[in-house]
Amino acid sequence: MAVIATLVTGRDGSTSKDGTSAGVSSAADRQSFLTRRRDADCILIGGNTARIEPYHRTPVPVVVISKSLINPLADNRLAHCWNLAPEPALDRAIQTFGSRIHIEAGRTILTQLIAAGRVDQLELSITEVVDGQNKIDLTTLLSHFTIDSERILDGTRMISASRKLES
Q1: Burial of 35 (0-12, 13-18, 19+ CB in 10 A)
Q2: Domain interval for residue 93
Q3: Alpha-carbon distance 161 to 157, whole Å?
Q4: Is residue 103 part of a domain?
Q5: How many CA atoms lie within 13 A of 30 on its CB side?
Q6: Hey, CA dihedral for 133, 61, 82, 163, is it positive or negative?
Q7: Is the dihedral of CA 73, 17, 41, 91 positive or negative?
Q8: Global model pTM greater than 0.85
Q9: Confidence of residue 1 (pLDDT cuts 50, 70, 90)
Q10: How does DSSP assign 70-124, residue by residue?
């Protein structure tokens, strides 16, 4: 099983700028991101991510965790809207679609699943962007993981890390 969280941030931990993650992304991040998500059995996102980001076409099923009764991705035939907390939604996604789940949710859902020990792998891209919104503490985020590889591609720091095993 591989639950993989994908996150792009600016250098200061901003997860969005001008309202979307595209504001902190880079060409290198987008290329890596799109390549990885094709290997997923399912993508897991929150309702805000679904309303703001471009998820109207996805290569695999996408699950929207939302308390709203309105599916923000009704035009995506692969979209499912579930009124569940993050952990039960992840469990149901694994049972329904398979074990390779990509979490592309915002920081609230992401940090909940990381704190619960449910994220096996973190794919983190850090761009040079600063002064965005919805900041996440990168040091705290990475403290849950062991860095497996790190490289810089066109100014974007790409980190691949595995969940630290309990001792």
Answers
A1: exposed
A2: 18-163
A3: 13
A4: yes
A5: 8
A6: negative
A7: negative
A8: yes
A9: low
A10: S-TTTT-TTEEEE---HHHHHHHHHHHH-SEEEE---HHHHHHHHHTT---EEEE
